[in-house]
Design a protein that fits this description.
about 350 residues; alpha/beta; 3-stranded mixed beta sheet; nucleus; nucleotide-binding
Length: about 350
């Protein structure tokens, strides 16, 4: 499928922002990291890595990347399995480390402080192996991630833990957690699990509890034919060293190859977007920032045109394009340029023909 548009070069096309006025509707993301803070997550493994510390480093790397690539996304961090509590529902063993909000310098500095001294987490939040209703965690997450403009956001709760059964076999805790997870999924909130193996020989059994809470790629509903454009992110189990790559996959959004309008009928046109599933993701152009107190603001470039004769600033309607032809400059208005650039009408539905009705010679 090809685009039915072409264009003629009229000067610097980067200056002409009005001819490509198709604005993509990018859904923002609300991502809430729920991190296990039990004693085993604070102890170094056989490689000397502390699971909680590696988790915070991975999240920090993602946050820094998001400042440039998706600055309007919001991220929050909740610790569970703590001694202290910090949440509006007053639930035990749940500590909201960072409320879900836009990324800024103070939040990154706070993570840097905790990463430089993981003991601060013990002093501030504590760590406990006490069993508590897992549904309490989901309630706190649900309240934190609630947004009045929910339709404009993709909501995700990412659970990072090395405990395959936080209910410790408690049937009532399991039942209430499953129901609460279902309520979240019905409200279009994804729940994703990154299960960590405590060591190379350890086994994280997803069927003990999380199989009824999150979606794994080998669940029964995935045995059917898979839609290659299904954008669901599946939970996974793995080693601590793979954690950053797993978190990164959640943050990688699909990249479209082309866009074009498709006319279904009079006054009814939809947009068609095509995807190249193996399209290379390249590093974007660098951006500039300036510090204003504790806030880091992106520098926005503004181009303005001034008349040499009158020394007055020009509006877009004052500016025209010219193309040299036969030794003379031919002047075009914006409407003229738009008409020239449009070679033919966009895709149009003329009728429906079934494959069985086509005669193949």
């Amino acid at each position: 499928m090809s685009n039915g548009y072409t264009s003629v070069s009229f000067g610097d096309e980067e200056e002409d922002e009005n001819y490509e006025n198709m604005t993509e509707y990018n859904l923002k993301e609300l991502t809430l990291y729920a991190i296990d803070c039990r004693p085993s997550m604070l102890e170094a493994d056989q490689n000397g890595d502390i699971p909680l510390l590696v988790t915070l480093k991975s999240i920090r790397a993602i946050i820094v990347d998001r400042i440039d690539t998706r600055p309007n996304d919001q991220i929050g961090i909740i610790l569970f399995g703590t001694t202290e509590k910090n949440n509006s529902q007053d639930k035990d063993h749940i500590y909201i480390l960072q409320q879900i909000d836009l990324i800024d310098a103070p939040r990154i500095k706070e993570l840097d402080l905790l990463i430089s001294n993981v003991g601060l987490i013990k002093d501030r939040c504590g760590s406990s192996d006490a069993v508590f209703p897992f549904s309490d965690l989901l309630w706190v997450c649900s309240n934190s991630i609630a947004n009045p403009n929910a339709k404009q956001y993709i909501k995700r709760i990412i659970i990072i833990t090395n405990n395959d059964d936080p209910t410790d076999g408690n049937a009532q805790y399991r039942k209430t957690a499953i129901q609460r997870a279902k309520d979240l999924q019905d409200s279009r909130t994804e729940i994703i699990l990154f299960g960590l193996k405590e060591n190379e020989d350890a086994f994280f059994d997803p069927n003990l509890f999380y199989g009824d809470i999150v979606v794994f790629p080998d669940n029964d509903d995935k045995q059917e034919e898979k839609d290659e454009f299904d954008e669901r992110i599946f939970s996974s189990i793995g080693n601590l060293k793979d954690l950053f790559d797993k978190i990164k996959t959640v943050q990688t959004s699909a990249r479209s190859e082309f866009r074009l309008p498709f006319e279904i009928g009079p006054n009814l046109t939809i947009g068609v977007r095509g995807y190249n599933m193996v399209l290379e993701q390249k590093i974007g152009a660098p951006k500039y920032y300036f510090a204003e107190g504790e806030q880091t603001q992106e520098v926005k470039s503004v181009t303005r045109w001034k008349c040499v004769d009158t020394n007055e600033f020009l509006t877009p309607t004052d500016i025209k394009k010219a193309y040299s032809y036969g030794g003379e400059d031919v002047v075009f208005t914006e409407d003229d340029v738009a008409t020239i650039q449009t070679v033919n009408k966009p895709g149009e539905l003329r009728g429906i023909v079934f494959v069985g009705d086509i005669l193949i010679c």
